[in-house]
């Protein structure tokens, strides 16, 4: 059973890895269009009324739609490559079509996840149980598996899980909408930021990031803003600490700190892992606090990140980017201060006493 759930996790992460480029490409193109519209004083560049405006406004309106087209492939790609991970190429069609249907039924991210798993395991079971004479065996992967795998997947989606998952997705959206205002937004930012800082690219971190990305397609950006701020903070914080207090760290960790600083700027949280593993009992709480506080500052001061990019190259596309950067800076300084004043074992001379 443990192995089964490990495989499920692997299949889901495969889907996520293929989905991310589509999400980023679509969201960045839309971000460029919206920044361009702002130069003309247009804050709703997606509105079809701008197609007949003067200047470059129609171009930015079209560009926003093209970005939305790429973003719209997010769920079908996610579902398709979960299925692919389970049952290889014969499952791709069923996974993609199931994901597209999940999108059309309004089941959102959860429905696409379900459709990918359903498609993959249906095709997997069929592939392992359909036995034809050798002369006809070539028909199985190119006809029987894609056709009947797709048929069974869409029927299950349409008539069994579509309605309940759509209701669940709508409930999640409504809950997130209520959490996106006032003090609730602050709580949401604290929770998402803390999850990101807890295991630095592990399952809890990934759960927060994937959920935040999925909500982008629903027009909910608070979770994404909190997540993208938090991703940067630990790696940047440890990099700052090694620059400020070099004597606190061994030569190896000083070198790791340089890499960590750069990884922070480009949005890779795993750069903080070497520092956290030296003294996890102290550093995990520091990471959580730094990420939670930094995310809360950015969100509470009105920063809105509509794209799933945490690196420095996306900062200027963030609404109210100065306070967004302020949240990153404050959170990073908390981690740096925690490493310097609370951390033990970073110097090899101290390492034996760590616990």
From TrEMBL:
Membrane association type: Multi-pass membrane protein
Localization terms from the record: Cell inner membrane
Keyword Transit peptide attached: no
One family name in Pfam for this protein: PTS_EIIC
GO cellular component, one term: plasma membrane
Residues spanning the membrane: 20-42, 63-87, 107-127, 139-161, 173-198, 219-241, 261-279, 286-315, 321-342
GO biological process: phosphoenolpyruvate-dependent sugar phosphotransferase system
UniProt GO MF annotations: carbohydrate:proton symporter activity; protein-N(PI)-phosphohistidine-sugar phosphotransferase activity; protein-phosphocysteine-sugar phosphotransferase activity
UniProt KW keywords: Cell membrane, Membrane, Phosphotransferase system, Sugar transport, Transmembrane, Transmembrane helix, Transport
PTS EIIC type-2 domain mapped to chain residues: 8-349
NCBIfam families with a match to the protein in the record: PTS_IIC_fructo
Protein name: PTS mannose transporter subunit IIAB
Organism: Clostridium sartagoforme
């Amino acid at each position: 059973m443990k192995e089964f759930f490990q495989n499920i996790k692997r299949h889901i992460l495969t889907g996520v890895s293929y989905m991310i480029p589509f999400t980023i490409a679509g969201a960045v193109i839309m971000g460029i269009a919206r920044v361009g519209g702002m130069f003309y004083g247009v804050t709703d560049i997606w509105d079809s009324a701008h197609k007949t405006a003067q200047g470059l406004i129609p171009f930015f309106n079209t560009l926003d739609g093209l970005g939305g087209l790429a973003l719209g492939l997010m769920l079908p790609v996610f579902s398709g490559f979960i299925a692919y991970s389970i049952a290889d190429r014969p499952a791709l069609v069923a996974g993609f079509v199931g994901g597209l249907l999940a999108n059309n039924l309004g089941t959102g991210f959860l429905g696409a996840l379900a459709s990918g798993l359903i498609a993959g395991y249906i095709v997997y079971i069929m592939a392992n149980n359909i036995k034809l004479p050798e002369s006809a065996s070539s028909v199985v992967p190119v006809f029987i598996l894609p056709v009947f795998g797709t048929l069974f997947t869409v029927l299950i989606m349409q008539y069994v899980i579509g309605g309940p998952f759509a209701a669940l997705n709508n409930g999640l959206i409504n809950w997130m909408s209520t959490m996106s205002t006032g003090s609730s937004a602050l709580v949401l930012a604290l929770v998402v930021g803390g999850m990101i800082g807890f295991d630095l690219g592990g399952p809890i971190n990934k759960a927060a990031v994937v959920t935040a990305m999925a909500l982008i397609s629903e027009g909910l950006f608070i979770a994404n803003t909190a997540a993208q701020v938090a991703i940067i903070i630990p790696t940047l914080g440890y990099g700052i600490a090694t620059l400020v207090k070099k004597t606190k760290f061994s030569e190896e960790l000083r070198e790791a700190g340089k890499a960590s600083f750069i990884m922070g700027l480009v949005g890779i949280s795993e750069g903080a892992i070497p520092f956290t593993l030296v003294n996890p009992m102290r550093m995990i709480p520091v990471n959580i606090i730094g990420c939670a506080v930094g995310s809360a500052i950015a969100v509470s001061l009105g920063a809105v990140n509509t794209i799933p990019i945490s690196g420095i190259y996306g900062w200027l596309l963030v609404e109210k980017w100065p306070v967004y950067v302020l949240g990153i800076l404050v959170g990073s300084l908390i981690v740096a201060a925690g490493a310097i004043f609370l951390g033990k074992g970073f110097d090899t001379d101290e390492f034996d006493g760590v616990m």
